[in-house]
Fold each of these.
Amino acid sequence: MTVASSAAAPRAAAARPSDPAPLSDPVRPSDPDIIATIGATPLVALDRLFPPTRFQAYGKCERFNPGGSIKDRAARSMIEHALSAGELVPGVSTVVESSSGNLGIALAQLCNFYRLALICVVDPRTTTQNTAIMRAYGATVEVVDRDPETGEYLPSRIRRVRELLRTVPDAYWPNQYGNEDNARAHHHTMREIHEALPKAPDYLFVAAGTTGTLRGCAEYIAAEGLPTQVVAVDAVGSVIFGPPEPWERGHRRTIPGHGAAVVPPLLRTGLADRVVKVTDLDCVRGCRRLLAKESILAGGSSGAVTAALLDAASWIKPGATCVAILPDGGDRYLDTIYSDTWVESRFG
């Protein structure tokens, strides 16, 4: 079952976010291009899944970004700021990053566009379709195994990134886990939600991985003085918000996109008013309910957020407005979450 716990610390105040200055990079044409389509994703009513007689729920559908996920926003923010600062040089630099899938695709698209090489370090949970998409954009993909000490993949991925930084000429690590531009990109995400509704939502449900989306949205909420309560959706067994409880330690995550084996440097105390933890099976159920009721083919972390919102229906105040950020689409999960054979083999 989905497990909920309250975050005791109050949300920290933040400076008023501002839009980054337009880039003057000569490799970027002045007319609209594929990169200009990142953002401005639709906010859709989820009335079939959550009848509005109880509360109003919306889904922010990030699959409509050109790279297929919310990671397009972070990738654009990190790469364009590095280009503007001269840390990346088209035709010369190599971007090296760790990813479980979606950020790798987003970076592959950006690097292809800006004539940058990319080496993406992934693990076996990354689907063959995702690695194929990265390679189609011209990226080099390296797959690492579990860290022998922790049994987790992330420490192995980070270790390999550091090795590549020492050996690859003109290598640059965006470091999605600690890059402020990752979080800053999501000031825009929350602004889009705020401006699309008659009033600020009462609750925002957001998946936590690098915590870039969580932090960026929470900073915007604090800066604007919005009454929105932030619900962070984490994975059972994740360490983001503290060591796992004893009962969590037997759960091994196979669905990427949320949760982490290492506390991300971007995390700040008090970003979330409440933390909800979900299992892999919760993700599957969330995805399939969203498809059955709303005809939305959603990815794993979108299913996690949907499962958390379904669980929260018991405590959400009547008449409230809720927004669930749905980070990605389900077309890259057809062989897993939407495969009865795969589900039966793992969950019975």
Note: DSSP finds nine helices and eleven strands in the chain.
Amino acid sequence: MIEVREWSRGDTARLFRPPTAEDDKYARGVVALRTGSPAYPGAAVLGVEAAWRAGAGFVRYVGADRVADAVLARRPETVVGADVGSSRVGAWVIGSGTDPSHRTDEESLALREILAGTTPVVIDAGALDLAPGARAPFLVTPHAREFTRLQERLRVQPHDEDDDRADAARQVAAKIGGAVLLKGARTLIADPDGGVIAVEAGTGWLATAGSGDVLAGVLGAVMAANPGAALAEVAAAGAWLHGHAARIAAGERDGGPGHPIVAMDVAEALPHAVQDVLG
């Protein structure tokens, strides 16, 4: 039986702090996102919005012109452009809103260069196929179907629905050499050394399109603000904050049934979730 650590609000609080008079935008964390596509520009908009709302001091975006225009229309604070070398990037977010079957050779090369570096990376959705062999510290964020495909790619025996998800996540983390965040009503985070963390902080209303793109942006912000922190703990804190923001957005703070939400509602509730954590 695998020992699973239950993550709490108090655990999350350790990875958040209010800025001081000595902090500048770089000290609060710099997030760079290479996400979205002409087919799914909203994924980039949601991820960038979430990174800002979760506390990043500086957010950069790299992507197609049409997608960059959508990002700027929503968040004009964002710096758009391919040259991020001088921006002191603390975390990358890649893959959200992309399809690997439509990825160009140029895009694949750019993503592989990110994964060959030293800056930690959140690998989501359409970039999950590039995770094996990555040298940068990384966190993959699959949902159930993506996780099954990842198991097949790694030649790890897929688990049936009734099998232990914690053991499955642990096996994939060990095989891939990076942290794994397996999304679900009970989110599981496994590290390559065998540790597993469980986060139960969300709401059923979070099962809505784009919520994973928001989560990716949150994870990038928490990662950039905590250089050197264990990626499994960064992932758990980000997942807890994301779930708490969803509860706030759905009106569940007082124990009621809540109401429907969309992904942008979750992003917009993130500052209130951060305030609760800091309080």
Note: The first strand starts at residue 4 and ends at 6.
Amino acid sequence: MTDTGGGTGLPASVEAAWGLRERPAKGPKPGLSLDRIVDAAVAIAAAEGLGAVSMGRVAKELGASTMSLYRYVGAKDELYLLMQEDAMGPPPAAPPPGTGWREALSLWAWAQREVFHRNLWALRIPRSGPPATPNMVAWWERGLVALEGTGLDEGTKIAVILLVSGYVRNEATLMADLGAAVESSGVSAEEVMARTARTLRRLADPERFPSVARSLEAGVLDAVDEPDVDFSFGLRCVLDGVAGVVSSTAGRASAPR
């Protein structure tokens, strides 16, 4: 592990991302830097997936020794954090004053989804705790700001943020997995769905699986829905649930004592 002597308990490279210590400008190999290491790792992940990223592979891409990278980043998990920080970037600007919580949170969710769809490899980074890097904390802050004025307590606000961001991640991961499956099949998404529908119609005995049979009869698998339409529907359902909590909280606050 790298030195954590800055008092935050964070690795030196993450403290550098916060501006709490200087980033090493030069290393054993001239031109090697933390920024170049992260850029090379992100490029590998974007081209080949997160599984292709290793300290040795990044070092090879930079023409450096693997050991020289450890002067800048202490472990692969640490590198993952910095890659995620780079991929996410800062959150979008706050919506105009007077924007309702629901619209503000919806804009936040759509913006997060767009980032994930541009960086599908980032969805494979294991989550080990709360945000710990500047951009990730800034995204967290923007989501919480959207909930100001709802009357929700701070713990419930965090729960709402986790719920919405979890939905975003799940949808993006599902789309990534389905896209990979379609690509590996060598046929169009429409043909994959058609094959699935034909198979299920043969297997789903209406007496044993009546609900599934009715869905197939209705043709729900005969067409490929637009991803944005599905995401919009799901997000609306999630926010409807949050609206119920907000309304309930407001009702309790206004009830006579």
Note: The radius of gyration is 23 Å.
